[in-house]
Structure formats: C-alpha cells, structure tokens
Model the fold of this input.
Amino acid sequence: MALDAVYLETILEHYKRPRNMERPERWDAHARGSNPACGDEITVFLDLEGDRLQRVRFEGTGCAISLSSASMMTEALSGKSLEAAERFRDSFLELMEGEGAPEGTGLGELEALGGVRALPARVRCATLAWEAFTEALRRVSDGQEE
Done:
C-alpha cells in the first residue's frame, strides 16, 4: 500500500484542524502517552458527569496520524457512557490489529485509519491517544480522579 493511501482526506482534515485540542480549565481524569520512537506526545483529558464522558479533549504534538486519531477519538467518545466508550475503544483497537472494523460498531471517520495497518511502525501513532484514554479510564475506576 502506498503511503499516500494512508493519508486520506479525513486524516489530513483532522490533522490540519484538530477537534477538541485544548487543555481544559478543569478535568476529572487525565493521562499522557508518548511514543519515543517518533516523538509523539498526547495527553487526554476526561470531563465526566456520572458515568458519562461529558467531553474528551487532548493536547500534544505528533505526526498527522497521531493527532488525527486523537481528534477523531475525542469527537467519537464525547457524550458516551463509560461502558459504551470502552466498547467503542475495543472496536477501534480491533480495527488497528488487523481484524477489520467489527460489524455494527459505527467507527465512522476512524475507519480511515485502518490503512495504517499496512505500516506496522505507524500503528502505535494511531493508538497512542487511545492508550492515554485507557489509562485515564483506569484512574477513574481506581478512584484517582483529579
């Protein structure tokens, strides 16, 4: 697969105009992920209302794949219950592991990142924000909220 095929229009749009890329004034949990191999660093912030992700935001630096994935992730997860967000995350990670998008998951724009599987070194870029999200969820469940 040519590298150009990976950088689909959706990926570039989220890279050029990332959604929810801001450090919020307050948050209930956050976690940072880094990929020393390419220098990507993403911090994910969760704003919770009960068991619902009121809003998910991020800040960081990185390549088009990591920032686009973080941007799409925040749009997809904001407003979901914690349980639904975890199922959604699992579906995305299945896509990135090469199993394809599970039926009925509705990954939407995130399916554009499926082409990254052809470049194994870049899969970590696509999953970095999701790893930080998972750590932030762990902190919530362990009672380590900010």
About this structure: The CA atoms of residues 92 and 107 lie 7 Å apart. The chain has a mean pLDDT of 89. The chain has one domain: 3-141. Residues 120-141 form the longest helix (22 residues).
